[in-house]
Amino acid sequence: MAHVSAIILNYRRAAGTANVVRCLFDGTVIPTWVTVVDNYSGVDELDLLEKQLESWPSVEIVASDRNGGYAAGMNLGVLRNLSLRPDYFLLLTHDCQLEPGALSNLISALESDSESAVAGPLLKSRTSGDVFSAGGWIDAGRCRIGHYRNARACGTSRVDWIDGAAILVRREILERTSIDTQYFLYYEDVDLCLTVRKMGRKILLVESAKASQTTDGMPVFYAARNRYLLARKWFSRSVRRRTVGEIALDACGRAIRGAVRRRRSEMVEAWNIVRGLASGIGLHTARGTSLHG
Hints:
9 helices; about 45% helix; disordered C terminus; 10-stranded mixed sheet; two-stranded antiparallel sheet
């Protein structure tokens, strides 16, 4: 029987995190260990989280002393549990609820394919019921990413990346690498999956494993910032230049449309794209040319 360490990241969503925990314990396979990492939500939120989780005394709560983003919080939970030597780590955000049987099907998919290292469920929007992510794709020529929005009715399939809201990872992967903290929010899952693929391992989307979440989409600041950082880390100079150009053109287009239509919201978005790109370039410059090669 596989041993799973579940790491749930909470940030000011105590009730939502409690629902994530409840769904885990309602599953056909229950993780051996469950750890909730609170990403520096504040004392009041931590007290509320403890009250919300009273029904599950085996759940460990770890309070981070800073909010370093998704990767920092997940890495904290993983490092705390590596010595337990679980077969797998299940990484979940505070809004992602697994349906019964999901974890069992994710484990089965990885155990049936020794070359695979990461598996994720079919993610649906809890508000609309539509598929939010059936795995992700990467356009390496332009450093563009996206979600497959339709289930392919093929059971288990290889994809380029899995959404970090719910991801099952073999322990040996997280013994060899940590999740990159430079992104703070969004794109860490893409980066992790690129690292796994570089190791020669496969990424799987398991359609029989289902989960739901609420999402408002990616803010344009992080979309611009982290697309640049991903390009800088993983792709050629020509791809990086193209990426910067496309981001800049997007900002210009939104600014022009906002000015013509007199829509302040479009002007603000354009400015946030510029801020995001500048932040990414600034982070790279601050770290020097050694930033991840």
